[in-house]
Design a protein that fits this description.
Layout: H1 4-10, H2 31-48, E1 56-65, E2 71-79, H3 86-92, H4 94-107, E3 114-122
Parallel strand pairs: 2-3
Antiparallel strand pairs: 1-2
Helix pairs in contact: 2-4
Length: 150
């Protein structure tokens, strides 16, 4: 029977080891295992936001050690194809996406001893279908001074 973290991380894709081979078995997750799990969490969250898998490239890297002493990880999303309806909505809702990822991470037994540093999103001007001029109207906030009451 496969260990629980192998089933969660790799499903049925992982090949079983041939019987009779000697190997050291450890219950500790490697950095690569944790990155793979974060990758699935981020991918599932974006999928729920209707982002197609082929429209983005997702990566996860260990970013160091947090002040708390936990290993920290960050997610990286590169927009490969701009969907004029979905992509702006996703970008506008980055704080919500970040909160959803953090919620899953905080509830995960596999990730309870890590810290999520955030999600970095990149959409370059060479992204397929990206806008070529500003959309919408940038606004400038004007503050009016209030009379000082005595």
């Amino acid at each position: 029977m496969k260990p629980i973290f192998e089933r969660v991380l790799f499903g049925n894709r992982r090949k079983a080891r041939p019987r009779g081979t000697s190997s050291s078995v450890s219950s500790a997750l490697t950095t690569r295992d944790i990155e793979a799990y974060y990758l699935r969490v981020i991918g599932n969250c974006l999928k729920r936001m209707l982002i197609k898998e082929e429209d983005v490239q997702i990566g996860v890297r260990r970013t160091g050690t947090a002040p708390s002493g936990l290993s920290s990880f960050a997610g990286y999303v590169r927009v490969l194809r701009w969907d004029p309806v979905v992509t702006p909505v996703v970008l506008q809702n980055l704080p919500v996406i970040d909160a959803r990822i953090r919620k899953v991470v905080s509830a995960s037994v596999l990730l309870e001893h890590t810290q999520f540093d955030g999600l970095w999103v990149q959409a370059s001007s060479s992204t397929q279908g990206s806008p070529t001029s500003l959309l919408g109207l940038p606004a400038e906030l004007k503050y009016q001074s209030r009379p000082v009451s005595l």
